[in-house]
TrEMBL record:
This is Glucosidase 2 subunit beta. The keyword Transmembrane helix applies. GO terms for biological process: N-glycan processing. The chain crosses the membrane at residues 167-188. It holds the Pfam family PRKCSH-like. Residues 1-27 form the signal peptide. InterPro entries: Gtb1-like (IPR039794), PRKCSH_N (IPR028146). Keywords: Membrane, Signal, Transmembrane, Transmembrane helix. It comes from the Eukaryota.
Length: 201
């Protein structure tokens, strides 16, 4: 069997792939731009706009077309002028920002969740105190309603939020250790292969 294709290295590659898959599943919320406490609100087949004006079906959620004047149906896109996008910012402070900031090629959330269309790469800087870099960004911070929302967001950081933050940190550490082990394993296999060749000479 060739170096680099041993059962140990193959199982390690599979484990590493699983870790990357698990990390990607955890890092992308199922309801983009939605506050965790609103997830039940969006779980039914027919959802009423929060202003009570009309209803929309679940397949029209985040479809980039504004059905509700208040932006209830488009929390994760910039389709509604009055929409609000929720940054989870695991490892830092969660917050709301205007939906017009979604996919505008500017990293507003420290977790990069507001730029998910792939046109720009936003590194996750939340764990490193990333919010400090975004204090001058265009966050909602003027009206009384928004002050109330921000106050509620701070009050609603629950044990579950803390748990998710710890999971995120743990995944980062696991991936770093896994990549280091993988690099060491490849290096060790190459060294073994070289020593075998020398012996056969």
């Amino acid at each position: 069997m060739e170096a680099g294709h041993s059962p140990k290295s193959m199982s390690f590659v599979l484990l590493l792939s699983f870790c990357f898959f698990f990390a990607s599943v955890r890092s992308v919320p199922s309801l983009i731009g939605v506050h965790p406490l609103d997830e039940k609100y969006y779980s039914s087949e027919v959802i009423k706009c929060k202003d009570g004006s009309r209803s929309f079906t679940i397949d029209r959620l985040n479809d980039d077309f504004c059905d509700c004047v208040d932006g209830t149906d488009e929390p994760g896109t910039s389709a509604c002028a009055r929409g609000k996008f929720y940054c989870r910012n695991m490892g830092s402070t969660p917050r709301f920002l205007f939906s017009s900031r979604v996919n505008d090629h500017i990293c507003d959330c420290c977790d990069g969740s507001d730029e998910y269309d792939g046109n720009i790469f936003c590194p996750n800087t939340c764990v490193m105190g990333g919010n400090a870099a975004y204090k001058n960004s265009y966050y909602i911070s003027t009206s009384r309603d928004v002050d109330v929302i921000n106050r509620k967001v701070k009050e609603e950081i629950t044990k579950e939020d803390l748990f998710h933050r710890l999971i995120g940190l743990k995944l980062v550490i696991i991936l770093q250790v896994a990549l280091t082990c993988f690099a060491v394993l490849i290096w060790a296999n190459r060294c073994r292969a070289k020593s075998k060749r020398r012996r056969h000479r």
